Amino acid sequence: MFTKESVVRLSECGADGKLTLPGAINYFQDCSELHSEAVGVGVEVNNDYAWVLSSWQIQIKSYPMMNDSITVATLPHKIKGIQGDRNFLMMNSKGEVIINANSIWSFFDFVNNRPTRVPEEQIEAYKLEPAFPMEYAERRIKIKDIPEDEYIVKTEITVTESMIDVIGHMNNMQYVLVSNDYLPDGYKYNQVRVEYLSPALKWDKIILKQYICDERLVSLLTSPEGSNHAIVEYTNIDLK
Predict the structure, then answer these.
(1) Nearby residues of 111 by Cβ (< 8 Å), 6 or more positions away
(2) Fewest Cβ atoms nearer than 10 Å: which of 15, 53, 102, 223?
């Protein structure tokens, strides 16, 4: 398990003084990259290849407050074919897990512009560990049962330079940030799932549509032509 200690900063918190969901995702993404660099297979080494995030499943017991000490951890637990699965944990100063997550990644060849089989040196570098005990959801978020006329269009945004990551795509966290900005006031959830479908690029237009029922809230981030960039689903589940 790779770990990094930190203190929650003012700039990472919302109006309630607690770390935000996008802030937690940033901690997890940064921990992943620091881990890759530490074992010698980071972005600086593999300019033509990268792990591309396919999905998140994040479970939140509580958010830390500003100035709280936290430990962020990551552990890869499965690599098969073109895919790798990685857990993340955020722990408080007592060592209690307050946020846990699973993520699914594809190993991408940017020279040939396609996913490719994970090479042996990647598998050897990461040293797989047992998966964190949590209730694992399916990778795909089901939206076929939602009639198109039941979505509410909330906003349209333009992807700007500040939203772009090191591989030229809209950063994974930004989709969640846009979605979170349009949640109903006081909306409660303890699990968030995100499915990434096609990357948005600089100056692309993104339309945010929202669907709410008793069981879940779904944010659909689409292009003006109707292709889906990402799906974000918020639910309340029994966290043990």
Answers:
(1) 48
(2) 15
pTM above 0.90, yes or no: yes
Tell me the C-alpha distance between 161 and 193, whole Å.
26
**Strand locations in the chain, DSSP E?**
2-7, 49-60, 69-80, 83-91, 97-109, 114-115, 152-158, 191-196, 205-212, 216-222, 228-235
Contact call for residues 148 and 220 (beta carbons, < 8 A) = no
- Write down the mean pLDDT value for the chain: 94
φ, ψ of residue 117 to 5 degrees: the values are -60, 140
d(C-alpha 234, C-alpha 8), whole Å? 24
Dihedral angle over CA of 187, 190, 196, 200, nearest 10: 40
Letter for the amino acid at 132?
A: F
Burial 203-237 (b: 16+ CB within 10 A, else e): ebebbbbbbbeeebbbbbbbeeeeeebbbbbbeee
Asked if residue 43 has pLDDT above 80, the reply is no
Distance CA 231, CA 236 (A): 17
Distance CA 231, CA 216 (A): 13
Q: How many CA atoms lie within 13 A of 237 on its CB side?
A: 17
Whether pLDDT at 46 is above 90? no
- Considering only CA atoms, which of 52, 72, 77 is closest in space to residue 127? 77
Look at residue 44 in the predicted model and tell me its pLDDT. Answer: 57
